[in-house]
Design a protein that fits this description.
The protein contains three helices and no strands. The protein is mainly α. Helix 1 packs antiparallel against helix 2.
């Protein structure tokens, strides 16, 4: 099962956070570099949590019960077909 595709704001956030992380490599003041790193790491963690929650919501969907019932029904029908009668 795959996660839902990333939304536009999530893609834009990921690109911005990548630029901030790259900004830490520039020859800036130490405070500015640490600020870039801190904001980038915090944003990446938030984006990670949002993506994991999106995946969990889809996996815990109520449709899962219906799918499992269908799988059980198919397995029961297959078992009926493959059973050999006793002689």
């Amino acid at each position: 099962m795959s996660a839902p595709p990333m939304r536009t704001w999530q893609n834009a956030s990921a690109l911005l956070l990548t630029l901030l992380a790259a900004g830490a490599l520039l020859p800036l003041d130490a405070r500015a570099r640490l600020l870039c790193i801190a904001v980038a790491v915090a944003g990446i963690v938030v984006l990670l949590v949002v993506r994991l929650r999106a995946h969990r919501v889809r996996r815990d969907d109520a449709r899962t019960g219906a799918v499992q019932a269908r799988i059980d029904r198919i397995r029961a029908e297959r078992e009926k077909r493959t059973k050999r009668p006793l002689r």
